[in-house]
């Protein structure tokens, strides 16, 4: 009799699957694509070409008996692509707004993205503020404490990350996975870019879901 598939550590694979649309927003060159590459493939490229329009990738994390699959839209940061952004965040259950801790202008721009999401995105969207390039903390122009206060005031999750070293990258996506309402049916918004399959599942103990083994793409 075949049993449930096992993770690499010999534990049973999660038996439930839940898919969520996630969008990354932020100025050009803040490291959005590098964060996704680190999360999805565990890689970092020092010189990353600018995204044109948007790139689509998937990656999954395991929480207890549930696999959470992220359908990730990595949007271009250049101003000329701004008008396309609503096509990608419409219908998204999660958004990661990224800024560069060494560039205060990108933090100001991140605040503008947060305001736009608050006005136009789903009212239940899980928003995360990510201060990337934490490996360059000696050159920072955005203080951690100030960003944390802003995040708290706007009910955002907040982490500083480094796509280069991997610092907090997996933890960021795990925090999102734990925050998403997997025990409630998800409504599919019309006109969403990309696949929008969202299964309502029951996650009994989300507070214990911190191990984060990868369940594959």
From TrEMBL:
GO terms for biological process: protein transport. It is found in: Cell membrane; Early endosome membrane. It is a lipid-anchor. CDD domains: Rab5_related (cd01860). It comes from the Eukaryota. It holds the Pfam family Ras. Belongs to the small GTPase superfamily. Rab family. This is small monomeric GTPase. It comes from Paramormyrops kingsleyae.
């Amino acid at each position: 009799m075949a049993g449930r598939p096992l993770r690499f550590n010999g534990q049973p694979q999660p038996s439930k699957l839940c898919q969520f649309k996630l969008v990354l927003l932020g100025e050009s060159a803040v490291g959005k694509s590098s964060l996704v590459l680190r999360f999805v493939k565990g890689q970092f490229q020092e010189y990353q070409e600018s995204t044109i329009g948007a790139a689509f990738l998937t990656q999954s994390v395991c929480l207890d008996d549930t696999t959470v699959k992220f359908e990730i839209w990595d949007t271009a940061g250049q101003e000329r692509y701004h008008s396309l952004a609503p096509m990608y965040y419409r219908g998204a259950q999660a958004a990661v707004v990224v800024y560069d801790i060494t560039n205060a202008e990108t933090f100001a721009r991140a605040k503008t993205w947060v305001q736009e999401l608050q006005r136009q995105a789903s009212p239940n969207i899980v928003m995360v503020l990510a201060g990337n390039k934490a490996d360059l903390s000696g050159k920072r122009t955005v203080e951690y404490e100030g960003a944390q206060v802003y995040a708290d005031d706007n009910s955002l999750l907040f982490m500083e990350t480094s796509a280069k070293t991997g610092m907090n990258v997996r933890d960021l996506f795990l925090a999102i996975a734990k925050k998403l309402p997997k025990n409630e049916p998800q409504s599919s918004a019309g006109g969403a870019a990309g696949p929008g399959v969202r299964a309502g599942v029951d996650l009994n103990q989300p507070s214990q879901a911190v191990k984060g083994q990868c369940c594959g793409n």
